[in-house]
Amino acid sequence: KNEVEQSPQNLTAQEGEFITINCSYSVGISALHWLQQHPGGGIVSLFMLSSGKKKHGRLIATINIQEKHSSLHITASHPRDSAVYICAVLRLEDGGSQGNLIFGKGTKLSVKP
Amino acid sequence: NAGVTQTPKFQVLKTGQSMTLQCAQDMNHNSMYWYRQDPGMGLRLIYYSASEGTTDKGEVPNGYNVSRLNKREFSLRLESAAPSQTSVYFCASSEGTQETQYFGPGTRLLVL
After folding, report:
1. Residues A43-84: tens digit of each pLDDT
2. Nearest by CB to B43, which of A96, A98, A103?
């Protein structure tokens, strides 16, 4: 079983819809990252969080440490949000001097106009 | 600022050939990483350097070597390329190992 699972694998939405992407993990973590990979291949870090909630523009990320679950929400989705969204965790035992991120396989989002 | 740069962007090798992928960052980051991305597998860590002068193996280090040349540069070497090393390689850097990582544009490698 993968240590980081994302759902759904693929998601198609209409412009303006509210979108939720889920990430579940099975290990203790010190931090969780959400990344965006553009259709051209470039990867951008969106959020890093270890508790609670963070917001940036139309993007909101939440994490529930007890339930080992995180969600990425996109409000008022737009075709330019079309990308692969990747969840990654830094395992607790790898904390400190190490930096071994464990990645989910990504959620491919397509937003139609 | 260029951020994280990688060269080359694309490379074709024959089995058994060697090559070095170059990565440089201009953000004065302490930590640098090499990942590979394969279809259906997600990103996997090959090697990382938590700070200048140190390197450590990640999840998939076999067939690769790395050099942290200085604080800016972190290279990945394939000594004898194999078709299984066909992949997209990403370099990343961060201020520390528990900080946000910034990714380079990637190198697409095809081993025939």
Report:
1. 999 999 999 999 999 999 999 999 999 999 999 999 999 999
2. A103
